[in-house]
Amino acid sequence: MGESKKPSNIYVRDRLIECFADANRELNEAIGQKVPERVLKAKVKLFVGDAFKKCGVDFRNPDREGMIKAMDECRNNIKGTIGEDGNKIVEKHYKEMLSLVSKLPKDEDEKH
User: Fold this and answer.
1) Domains of the chain: which residue ranges?
2) Residue 106 near residue 69 (C-beta atoms within 8 A)
3) pTM above 0.85, yes or no
């Protein structure tokens, strides 16, 4: 993706799901659990989809602000339940995703 090309909302949403899957994989490895990949991805998609729904964000076509709300919801749902090392993993992935989401146009930019 070139520097001037903006990612699509759907691309970013899908990367959000992949990033949460990566974070979950790391968390599971940290506690010595092995979760089958298809189970992990299904659980993460459900978890992320629920966060979008709870925030009133359209999962099929989320905007920048909606994605940030959903990311915050996901982060808040898991933080505090996974210990300090787990929180570091979540924050690392959160920052990566925020960097990608920040490349999306702001809601007011989309209306012009």
Assistant:
1) 9-103
2) no
3) no
Radius of gyration of the chain (CA): 14
* Residue in the block written with tokens 């659980």: 43
For residue 73, what are its two tokens?
């919801």
pLDDT one digit per residue (tens) for the chain, 112 residues: 444 567 788 998 998 899 889 888 888 888 888 889 999 999 999 989 999 999 999 999 999 999 999 999 988 887 767 777 778 888 888 898 999 898 888 865 444 4
> Dihedral (C-alpha) 88, 61, 104, 107: value to the nearest 10 degrees?
-110
User: Residue 82's closest CA among 29, 16, 10, 8?
Assistant: 29
| Spatial CB neighbours of 55, under 8 Å, sequence gap ≥ 6 | 66, 69, 70, 73
